[in-house]
Amino acid sequence: MAGFQTDESLLRNIDAEIKQLGRTNIIVVGRTGVGKSTLINAVFKEDVATTGTGSPVTKNIQKYAIPGTSVTLFDSRGLEMKEFKKIMEEVCSFIKRCQKNKDINEHIHIAWMCISHTSNRLEEGEIAFVEMISKYIPVVIVITQSYDEDNTLFNIIQQKFQDPKVIPVVAKEKSIRKGYPPIPSTGLPSLVKTTQELLPAAQQIAFLAAQNADFSAKILKAHGIVGASAIAAAAAGAIPIPFSDMAVLVPIEIGMIISITAVFGFEIERSVILALWGIFATASGASIVGLGLASLLKFIPGVGSVAGGIIDAAVATSITTAFGEAYIGILVVLFKENNGAKPTKDQLLAKCKQEWKTKQDS
Ligand SMILES: Nc1nc2c(ncn2[C@@H]2O[C@H](COP(=O)(O)OP(=O)(O)OP(=O)(O)O)[C@@H](O)[C@H]2O)c(=O)[nH]1
Ligand SMILES: [Mg+2]
């Protein structure tokens, strides 16, 4: 039957979209004591690198899966100057090995090369290291412990490498003197933004979801997801279709819900997506099966003029945009009410239900 979305095909849509969510692997390298662990903990707001149970993947590389996320960190610990060459070769052959995997989710996607601001110079080993790993993966050079504005190291790095991505950071606020305010944390949002830009598209959501240094980066990405979904919806509506065939939009809306929910850091499970779909796409009283999406029309100004009519590219775009932006709005309010902390799945569902009811009643 036209426009009829069976439970089974809905589940297939959901599973297919979940499968598309990628994993992100980051390798963090640098000399002992430069602040690698401090940086990791600050970006992900998890005590991963110190107390996390890392598992050794090679003699000098530890692996840390960040709990509840799709990000894995590889921390090359104890990079001593005298052993630089050996460790560098170990890291490079590890990266080469990973890149041979057919599954992109098993690749190493980016390296954060940490160099301490306090050293004020580049060691030969550090130069060789950056040159070597950038043959395989994008490298961001992080100047850790950038407690003052001295640009010496920044300028040396800029001159040394072609098109380097250099981000000075203070990962954790630093008290210098008693009675004076501490030096605040800086640079982490830039590191998040630069990293995201260098990641393959399929890896960006996992990274943005896991990081907790820049909430606005998640919101920005969510808007981008809505934009991309709206374009897909326009294509689906390129040949105008009757309202009863709205099912062509279902996979697009499902994909959008999944990506947005993921980017805000929620673990994606079929049951949660199904519950969200039940809230959003089902007109009050109707079952999930059958023509969902009817309640989405609530979001479109002048809905009366399109109801019962046809869906064309413009209507498909407005439904998708209005729906996606409304969902982002709910998420932003929910995080705010939770003082920035990630709400539970139950809180998410309850909030969506409440907001949707308000919309339906209005
Ligand atoms: N306040 C403050 N301290 C920092 C920062 N970065 C590093 N430190 C301090 O520098 C010391 C070394 O930092 P770690 O993060 O353990 O360095 P690491 O690179 O992980 O060291 P290894 O694991 O031994 O290779 C610790 O005492 C940190 O507290 C920072 O951004 N702020
Ligand atoms: Mg460490």
UniProtKB/TrEMBL annotation:
Entry's Gene Ontology molecular function annotations: GTP binding
UniProt xrefs under InterPro entries: GTP-bd, P-loop_NTPase
Lineage top rank: taxon: Eukaryota
Residue ranges of the TM segments: 222-241, 247-266, 273-297, 309-335
G domain ranges (all copies): 26-144
Keywords, in A-Z order: Membrane, Transmembrane, Transmembrane helix
Protein name: G domain-containing protein
